[in-house]
Amino acid sequence: MKHIVKILSLLVAISAFWIGLLQATIIPRSHTWLLPIYFVVSFGCYGLLMVGVGLMQFPTCPQEAVLLQKDITEAKEFFKHKGVDVGSD
Prior knowledge:
The chain is mostly helical. 79% of the residues lie in helices and 0% in strands. The two termini are 46 Å apart. The mean pLDDT is 83.
């Protein structure tokens, strides 16, 4: 829910800024139609940056890796007893 509120507040702020620029004529009228495109591209770059940062800081869980390896071994033995070829050990 927090992310939705952040995104909506950001969209409202961007819309208010854009409308303010349209009313104040600080930027020539011929360039103001590009502002939403710039905002969308900037938002996309920010999203990609956040995904990249999240991937770089992805936590490793050695305990979970050990448990996963035990589960895999257990599943291989289970299927081996059932007569299913599970490949190499």
